[in-house]
Amino acid sequence: MTENYTALYEEHKKLGASFTDFGGWQMPLKYSSELAEHHAVRNAAGLFDLSHMGEVWVTGPDAAAFLDYALVGKISAMSVGKAKYSLICQDDGGIIDDLITYRRPAAEDGTDKFLVVPNAGNAVVVAAALAERAANFDVVVDDASARTSLIAVQGPKAEGILLRLVPAAQHELVTGLKYYAAVEVPFMVAGSSKDLLLARTGYTGEDGFEIFVDNDDAAALWQAVAAVAEEGELVPAGLACRDSLRLEAGMPLYGNELSREGNPFAAGLGPVVSLAKESDFVGRAALEALKAGGAGSTSGRKLVGLKGLGRRAGRGHYPVLKDGAVVGEVTSGQPSPTLGYPVALAYVDVEHSEVGTALDIDLRGKAEPFEVVALPFYKRQK
Fold first, then answer.
1. For 199, which of 73, 97, 182, 362 could close a Cys bridge (C-beta 3.0–4.6 Å)?
2. pTM (2 d.p.)
3. In CATH, which superfamily holds the domain spanning 56-143+263-294?
4. Confidence class of residue 295 from pLDDT cuts 50, 70 and 90?
5. CATH class of segment(s) 4-53+147-247
């Protein structure tokens, strides 16, 4: 597999990061302690490099109608400045990727403009699928992934840190930005003002922001954010704590909870699918049939949260048991640093998916007790 390096790779090396391959990218796994980085995001703020994610611009007179066809959500109903979580599916309803779409102000010619952000390992596949599905629409699909970096500041202190890089007269652009919305903000970077797209989105369960920036300016922005933070206010954070944070927040990870073999209903993402929209979309017939046949997948399983009643954690692919019989499989699991007990996401037989159901996870031959609980495991205080 070809190794890709983000524009911030040298910054991570300077900080002593441990690297790991993720979707073909060399990414920081952690800088010091993944546990310390996790707690920093929950209590202060973490600085993440997400430049392995994709960025695909869709513009043209048919942009909204095209995305209604290409994705399962009703993208045309979005207001300018808003963001929407959605899925791109196969004809059979299998999930190619989960992604976020941002509706931006109209292009210079007055036509609609959207930014679609797929996951790292799927960026090339999603860009290709969008280009293929655009054949009968008056749109331009521009894969900007290779020239775009993405930096996230996540945690309760994120807003205060970023405000130090924004002129006082524009502070309202940051403080007034709602969750799942985005706006152009002037940031002071390396002594000059840069208009950058700032989104109030994230994958940690905390308040936070994601900033889209050209590769050439990425290192300067990373350094600027780090420089304005006070001691103990911000730490660089890697993929290890990103995974434990998203698991506590009950957020699915493609390749674990989501796949081409699964479907939105089994994954608990039925509300993301807009069967009410009038237009056709890829996968519609299959998804209508799946919904009519019940919310579970063809295997009769659905995604649930499991809380450990002991100390040992389940891991991906460990069997889930009921009275010794296999009734499911763990997709993600580890000890929760915030809550102090093990948590897991798992697909289990529908008849054993009700909240309060007692189940076990087979931990290499020993049955460890767990209980089905409502998701998310962790929810921040507003």
1. 182
2. 0.96
3. Aminomethyltransferase beta-barrel domains (3.30.70.1400)
4. low
5. alpha beta
